[in-house]
Amino acid sequence: MAAPPQLQALLLAVNALLRKRRYHTALAMVKGFRNGVVYGTKIRAPHALVMTFLFRTGSLRDKLRAILQATYTHSRNLACFVLTYKGLCALQSRAQGKTHQMHSFLAAFFGGLLVFHENNNINSQLNMYLLSRVLFALGRLGVEKGYIPELGFDSFPLLTGLVWGLVLWLFEYHRHTLQPSLQSSMTYLYEDSNVWHDISDFLIYNKSQPSE
After folding, report:
1. DSSP 38-78
2. d(Cα 158, Cα 117) in Å, to the nearest integer?
């Protein structure tokens, strides 16, 4: 079934606008905002669903509200950051007449201050996710540029042992320093597995079910 003529004319006008190079920067900011919403929702909703039903107590309504709130916060913050970052990059390029590497850093630095300044669970998780990847990337970049000598052996096993050794030491003796969701996961794995009463909470359930 063909679309009404008015709708076809509107779509043609919109597509013509989208192809105009003079509006490309502004439209890229809009699409960046859109992609931030979509990506934030895709990433956070499944994670919040699993973590909430695994570790959170409360009614079904409270759990669903927590999932929706976490998803909204993540997608909103990510969308606003993309919009801010692309806008600040465009302003710097326009002001100086060309693009510099420092533009990306400055735009993201101030965008991060504006959008992710609140110390909450969502922002903390994002920072930790990025920090681990930034450290890996800087290490690789340092090797590529010759600032860090390339080892003559595969260092990944050593790094793996160091990471796992440190995280379990922190969990056992300085647990309060770890992020809450990591504490919950590790408690489930390493402490809850020390306690059982019968076959029901040994194999079927993690903890004894309340008697009727």
Report:
1. HHHHHHHHHHHHHHHHHH--S-HHHHHHHHHHHHHHHHHHH
2. 35
Q: Which residues of 55-89 are buried (b: 16+ CB within 10 A; e: fewer)?
A: eeeeeeeebeebbeebbbbbbbbbbbbbbbbbbbb
- The 10 Å CB-count burial string (b at 16+, else e) for 20-48 is eeeeeeeebbeebbeebbeebbebbbebb
Q: What is the pLDDT of residues 127-172, one digit of tens each?
A: 999 999 999 999 999 999 999 998 889 988 999 999 999 999 999 9
Q: What is the pTM of this model?
A: 0.81
Place of tokens 């510099």: 100
> Would you say the C-alpha torsion 165, 168, 169, 174 has a positive or negative sign?
positive
Q: Which residues contact 26 (CB under 8 A, 6 or more apart)?
A: none
